[in-house]
UniProtKB/TrEMBL annotation:
Keywords: Metal-binding, Zinc, Zinc-finger. GO terms for molecular function: ubiquitin protein ligase activity; zinc ion binding. It comes from the Eukaryota. InterPro entries: E3_ubiquitin-ligase_SINA (IPR052088), Sina-like_RING (IPR049548), Znf_RING (IPR001841), Znf_RING/FYVE/PHD (IPR013083). This is RING-type domain-containing protein. Gene3D superfamilies: Zinc/RING finger domain, C3HC4 (zinc finger). Signal peptide: none annotated. Pfam families: Sina_RING (PF21362). The keyword Zinc applies. Residues 9-44 form the RING-type domain. It comes from Cuerna arida.
Amino acid sequence: QSVVSLLECPVCLETIPPPAFQCCNGHTLCGVCRSLTDRCPVCRVALGPRGRCLLADKLHMLFTATFLQSGGKKQKRSKTWTRQQLPTLHLPSRLLPRIVPTPSVERTPRPTQQLYHCPLDSCGSVVKSCDLLSHLQHHGDGPLVQYFCKESSTYLRFPVTRLTTVTLSQTLTFVLHVTSHPAASCLLVWLWIASEDASSYRLQLELPGRAPVRGQVFPLSWTSQQVLALAADKCVVLNDDDFDANCTKVKVTVLSKCDSTTI
């Protein structure tokens, strides 16, 4: 219990899931609270751009695996009691001024977590969504550039030459991908997300002196080859004349598909 208390976020008081962050003095906090503040809530030092706490991530995964394993053993031992009639629990409802009967709680196995492709073209691994950032940090060809946004937009320097992720205040992490068009002299830009709810979002780019352009967000269950072969026309297309001799500052915004407004 004392070790688990080390994974408690000092702001929301919840157990810190991956990705965990820390200040230079070692104080940890969760990804939601990290995206909402620029200073450590304990010692008030400034939080730098690189503040991941991989030890906290490993501890969380170790505890999760241990508890699931022990829960599975208890479930096997209780197989002889599955035929018995269990009494119905009567719990007071917080919403209705009466007693609401609820069925007895039965232990159910944890659903299998979806695996996603690594967005790196040089890597063919499949990972869980909670392990994606850690995998990119250890298997990337170069440094991983991360942007933590309080709103749904940020400014990037194009053309992008490094692997870039954008994390919004809701702990949604998008991976920006820029590649050459297979049949034309232009660039294709899209966002990946480690979720099957990718169709709920849209990518919008705003270049200086040009109207905003929008493209699709794809789940990481799609590889880059599948995107280029099946949905290249749904990506954002950028030509060489869209950039000047130096880097061009581009506004990247994630839109909600349901109402076409920023999330």
